[in-house]
Amino acid sequence: MKRDKKVKYKVNSKLKSEVVESLKLPKDILLGAVIVTVTGQSEAFVENYRGIVEYTDNLIALQTKTCLVTITGKSLRIDYYTNDEMKITGHIKNIQYSNN
Amino acid sequence: MVVRLIKYIKGYVKIRIEGYSPERFLNLCGNHHILLWDIQNRGNCFELYISIQGFRQLKPILKKTKTKLTVLERRGLPFFLHKYRKRKVFFMGIITCLIILYMLSLFIWQIECEGNYTRSTEVILDYLEEINVYHGMRKRDVNCEDIEAKIRSRFNDIIWASAQIEGTRLIIHVKENTDLQLNEEQDTEPSDIIANKAGTVESIITRSGIPMIHEGQEIAAGDLLVSGQIPIYNDAGEVASYQYCAADSDIMLNTTCDYSDSFSMDYEKKIYTGNKKNTYFITLFGRTVTFPLRKITYRNYSVITNENQIKLGKNFYLPCFYGKNTYEEYNIKKTTYTKQEATAIAKEKLSGFCEDLIKKGVQITENNVTINITGKKCIANGSLKIIEAIGKRRPVQIVEIPEENEDEKGIPEE
After folding, report:
1. Taking CA atoms, which of A66, B5, B175, B337 is between 20 and 30 Å from B135?
2. Which of A80, A45, A94, A62 shows the shortest CA–CA distance to B51?
3. Are A18 and A39 in the same domain?
4. How open is the CA angle B309-B312-B315, to the nearest 5 degrees?
């Protein structure tokens, strides 16, 4: 029963992404995809996230709808933080997406 | 920049949060739409900035997350005002400043003219002053439509005028009629032309009236040249009546003009010693203050004064002057002109005289001036033969012609 539901969800999400793709609708809104805009190595704008999981000088982990985004680097700072947008400055070394 | 200004006006605090999960605190702030900025991780605590408005909403979040909060800095206008709330004079100063600013904005501080070519700005400003539009007047007393109408009626060649107030400036736009042909004022009163000089007539061109002279004729001053009285003859060849008109004619006359000039051969020559002294002055409402106060010890000196009037903007002159006097010392030495020098000076004077004549439209045909140096004097004497336009108006003497029916009238009386 539980397995059935998961399969159904997978099919559902595949269908949804195909519909969004074919209709050329904005993915960030409908699929809840995270948008990361990186300028050089020192600035990153992140939109469409759920919240911060961890924040230290060398690591910022953000929970999004579909995955966990981990930004690692040196002396990372959050320039501003609101519900739907944040700006990170510092020396960025690595941006990693991990599904759990 | 604007964001920073708004933040400053609204006020913000720098806080330090410590606790089990500062990240959760951040997320909750985000969910409550509280803006946080410049978040920095300092080991086991976070330092961040938050607006006063956000700070007031923090209490339930702090309780929920069991976070400890310390206020590190208070910044912004609300804190500034709170800090200096007891300084009454300071606030009075701000208010007075605002009031003065407002009061100053009630007046016209600058009048600008645009689009004028033949009418200078000064002429227009002088006229505006005549109709009580001047620098420093109250803004609400300015009636733009009235100014426009008056400018148009005063200056014929200004065909369009617009006055507008922009801030504390009054801007006058005018449009001039550039291809206006100036109508010379013509007398319509019946008049004759008489001679104001004696000579020989070189040429005469008559536009209206009857010429009484011909080319080559000698005339004396006061002679009638062109008559404005035109006789009308009847069938019998008798003068029936007169028609009167304003005589109009160009008469060129051959005449002579005497010239005599003399000056002494001795003169005093200024020899500048090269010594100079500067003094500066300020004139306020007619009172002059000069500094430095030391006296000028030169025996003979010439003064060059450089005076400037202080003005606001372009055309608003204040009754305040400043400037510099330069005193240059010289010694007097008595000298005599050499013959060549004297002749050159006399010639220069003569040619200056001739140029003045030419400027008046006079033609010079012959120059019989001789320059003689006799003893201690240089004398230039002689006459110039010139051709010049002459003519003076005189009202026509209206002659009453006995009417024809006079006889008929006379019969019944008898």
Report:
1. B175
2. A80
3. no
4. 75
Q: Are residues A64 and A96 in the same domain?
A: yes
A63 and A14 in a single domain? The answer is no
Q: Which amino acid is at B23?
A: E
State whether ipTM is beyond 0.90: no
String of DSSP letters for B63-106: HHHT-EEEEEEEESHHHHHHHTTT-HHHHHHHHHHHHHHHHHTT
Same structural domain, A50 and A82: yes
Looking at the fold, whether A10 and A37 belong to one and the same domain comes out as no
Distance from CA of B80 to the nearest CA of A (A): 24
Q: Does one domain contain both A60 and A96?
A: yes
Interface of A with B (CB under 8 A): 50-57, 76-83
Query: Based on the number of CB atoms within 10 Å of its own CB, is B211 exposed (0-12), middle (13-18) or buried (19 or more)?
Result: middle
Contact indicator for B337, B378 with CB cutoff of 8 Å: yes
CB contact under 8 A, A51 and B30: yes
For every one of its 414 residues, what pLDDT tens digit does chain B have, with 9 covering 90 and above? 888 899 999 999 999 999 888 888 888 888 888 889 999 888 888 899 999 999 999 899 888 888 899 999 999 999 988 888 888 898 899 999 999 999 988 888 888 888 888 888 888 889 998 988 888 888 888 888 999 999 988 888 888 899 998 888 889 999 988 765 555 555 677 888 888 888 888 888 888 888 888 888 888 888 888 888 888 888 888 888 888 888 888 888 888 888 888 888 888 888 888 888 888 988 888 788 888 877 778 888 888 999 888 887 776 777 788 999 888 888 888 888 888 888 888 888 888 988 988 888 888 888 888 888 887 888 888 888 888 888 888 888 777 766 555 444 444 444
Alpha-carbon gap, residue A64 to B230, rounded angstroms: 112
β-strands B224-227, B210-211: how paired?
Answer: antiparallel
Whether residue A49 sits in one domain with residue A22: no
Contact A55 B35 (CB under 8 A): no
Nearest by CB to residue A52, choosing from B23, B38, B48, is B23
Q: Which residues in chain B are closer than 8 Å to A71, comparing Cβ atoms?
A: none
Put simply, the answer to whether A80 touches B22 (Cβ < 8 Å) is: no
How many Cβ atoms from other residues are within 10 Å of residue B131's Cβ?
Answer: 13
- A59 shares its domain with A22: no
- Compute the distance between CA of residue A10 and CA of residue A17 in angstroms, rounded to an integer: 11
Q: Cα dist. B241→A43, B129, B188, B396 in Å?
A: 108, 54, 19, 14
Which residues constitute the domain of residue A26?
1-31
Per the DSSP assignment, residues forming a β-bridge with B175 are: B160
Could you give the domains of chain B?
2-82 (3.30.70.340), 110-176 (3.10.20.310), 266-332 (no CATH)
Q: pTM for this structure?
A: 0.45
